[in-house]
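Task 17 of the worksheet. Students: predict the tertiary structure of the chain below and write it out as structure tokens. Keep your answer in the requested format; marks are given for formatting as well as content.
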Amino acid sequence: MSTALLNETALGEAAMSRGSAILDALPLAVLLIAGGGAIRHANPAAEELFGTGAQMLAKLGLARIVAPCGGVVAIVEQVRHNGQTMFEYGVELDLPRAGAACVVDVGAAPLEHEPNLVVLTFAVRTVAEQLGRHLQQRDSGRSNAAMAAKLAHEVRNPLSGIRGAAQLLESGAGEADKALARMIRDESDRIAALIDRMEFFGDESVAEASAPLNVHELLDHVQLVAKSGFASDAEIKTEYDPSLPLVDGNRDELIQAFLNLFKNAAEALPVNGGVIAVSTRYEHGLRVEHGLRSGGAGRRRVHLPIAIRVEDNGAGIAGELRERMFEPFVTGKSGGTGLGLALVAKIVADHGGVVDVESESANTVFRVLLPAAEQGSAAP
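Model answer:
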């Protein structure tokens, strides 16, 4: 082989190496596709998306990892044939190896100096769309909270009068009328309890009792309470990231939020074989715009690296309910008040975080994203 050819080969390999390094640095999932759907290269984001390593992806090939979504394969072949960049938005991608499904935006482009190679990108829409939706719900929820607090205040005074009148009637009534008076009193107490819960939505006392907290200690406490009561028949599995930093928060309120998530999961479990899986992990690069609490001004970007997942193997949540389940008084349970998950969303939002949900048949995952404490050691 001539010296010129050797130099050209070396330069080509160096260029390919630099190109691979660039692809590996991208947060977008990228595959380099050769003829026949062979996968020449997969960056770390693609390995995470498809739930397996680059070597296994290369062994399987494109058709197998995106099956049964044959549209992705067709896009690649069309780009290879026409030599033009293509985009397909809102593609439902089933990921059996990763054990999940998601909606992605697919981009495909020919490689300029290698016409047989196609660069294929996958932009997962699920997280961004859910965060956007829940951030909007959080902002509108605060307005609703103020209205609910005012309404609760206006109702409480006449309700106390009704209850007092019922007690007076009961003291001088016959047995038949006493039963009616007791019913009025009991219903007044029930409405008063509901008002107490509504008033919590207007409370912004988190900052007053905020302190660095170990999330794992908090979750262990919630697990103990759950196993001693409403989740006594369930199997609870935990998988914690030991490097997780502390969070700044109100311990009592966060316990209440996670108790509600555990209770929601427990109520969804099958009669036999019910499992609640709780896991934590550190997620890099996720930032949201957060409105400051009352007394502050403006908005700021907040990093939410602490992810806590509460997953159950129940029947899943209907799509129409899933879109509104963090709103007050929205419930799919008979006799439910629809305040449990709304309270979770309110508490998490007050801590500067976000909660979202993913649900399929026989699987529901609630994910809470929280900011780390500004100064704090790792949680054991």
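Marker's comment: The first strand starts at residue 29 and ends at 33. The longest helix spans residues 126-172.
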